Amino acid sequence: xxxxxxxxxxxxxxxxxxxxxxxxxxxxxxxxxxxxxxxxxxxxxxxxxxxxxxxxxxxxxxxxxxxxxxxxxxxxxxxxxxxxxxxxxxxxxxxxxxxxxxxxxxxxxxxxxxxx
Amino acid sequence: xxxxxxxxxxxxxxxxxxxxxxxxxxxxxxxxxxxxxxxxxxxxxxxxxxxxxxxxxxxxxxxxxxxxxxxxxxxxxxxxxxxxxxxxxxxxxxxxxxxxxxxxxxxxxxxxx
Lengths: 116, 113
Description:
The structure holds two protein chains of two kinds. Chain A is mainly β. Chain A has strands spanning 4-7, 10-13, 19-25, 30-38, 44-51, 57-58, 67-73, 76-81, 90-98, 106-107, 111-115. By secondary structure, chain B is mainly beta. Helix content of chain B is 0%, strand content 53%. In chain B, the strands form three sheets. In chain B, strands 2, 5, 6, 10, 11 and 12 form a six-stranded mixed beta sheet that branches. Chain B has a four-stranded antiparallel beta sheet with strand order 3-9-8-7, with no helix packed on it. A two-stranded antiparallel sheet of chain B has the order 1-4. The termini of chain B are far apart. The A-B interface holds A 6, 34, 41-44, 46, 49, 91, 93, 95, 97, 101-105, 107-110, 112 and B 32, 36, 41-46, 49, 51, 90, 94-101, 103-106, 108.
């Protein structure tokens, strides 16, 4: 149980284009989803927290107009990187928190974004 | 406020030797503590978690960790390292609300044959 999927697992896009990453909770309802960014050989950095049906809360220093987050349902959150640039290349990981386990986050497998 | 410190960004052990990965936390409230493993280009896999029950927590793949409040530590151990244990390990802390996870900087474990 408590499986989180991400799609795509890797994506290459050209500079200036936008790319959307999906995060789905497959067997539970996720009231809250989190988006993290991980640079090579570094830890995870929380980008934003999203609650179903409301606006995401962004961490300090994260551009909300660049990283658009939509949590439209209890099983789906999307992260759209708009006007991507090479410096946006990174590993993006989402996690989800279920109704029944308020303290625990279940992590997705990650999405490798490369902007050329 | 919470934070996590992982001492040693790189740890090397011989196959069959004891694995010890260190994690110290800082928390103003009773913490919930986690250890995750990450293989290259993959997400985080939960090894074990402490949620205020037994202080010695057993996880998957033979790993265990002991919560020591007096030392504010939650070190991860495994009696005998296996080649497949080579990976990146992250310690994390949150409070009972789970509103925010704080991750350590990670420890890269190398297992020498």
